[in-house]
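Practice set, problem 2.
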Amino acid sequence: MDAARPARAGDRERIDELRVEFFAELRAYRGGELWVRERMTAARSDESSAFVGTFDDAVVGYGIVEAHELRDGGRIGVVTELYVEPDAREVGVGETLVGRLLEWCREHGCSGIDATALPGHRAAKNFFEEQGFVARSLTMHRELEPEDPPDMDPSEAGGGA
């Protein structure tokens, strides 16, 4: 039987183990390395909650959701992390977790909920679409290379021969 419940203090070690798996999986996708760096350093919003997904009482997944204030005073939920172990996928754990995240967002006055699927991660995109999510924006990114040093006349470099 699969279920989802609020995470408890005793789940912290297991969630940390699952986060390592999740981050390793996402690093393989375009944008994944930067996404992982952002998540590892991101401060949680004042209003957030973590849930765990279980199968036969074993924690096999987790989800973290935050409520973000909009400039017009509204609120939107943001799924910052959602992961289910590969062997526990396809049995409803992810769906049950999303149900709890949606419930939490409704309870916290959110008008909608966002989640991220990285480019090329077709399984995540399909999963979210099956849960009723639709794309509403694309984040575009460009890496910046360090600037080349200005051309310099070797005689100005000092030291010379």
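Problem 2, part (b): a different protein.
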Amino acid sequence: MPQTTATQDRSAWKAWKQYCKSLKTSPWRDDPDANSGRDAIGHGRETYLLAGFLIWSHMTMPARGGRLVPQPQSAMNRVTAIRRIHDREGWKMVPSSALQTVLKGLLRIYVEENGPEGLLVRHKQPFSR
């Protein structure tokens, strides 16, 4: 695994453990029936937990790149890291497509408050001839 991925996973896991501790639940989401949807109530609980983590991450993580607030995709990257960690341990979590509505809402709020240019990737301009 690349070093940057491992670093991102460690950081996300630390935040995930803190979030789960605040809710008095285990960070390991190891109920296959709930995660697959066979248990509808459990599936809703797991989806709600990940959606809450997405929102909580966006509210608590630091902004980077000269921005005032973090980008919503940065918070989604944390969720992706948690899903990757569970996957390595053999546990499938609820699909990330279940979080798309929440992510779109965060993006809409971000654009309303910061403008669409806040979502642009900031790179140095290439040298011209």
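Answer key, part (b): Residues 3-111 form one domain. The two ends are 38 Å apart (CA to CA).
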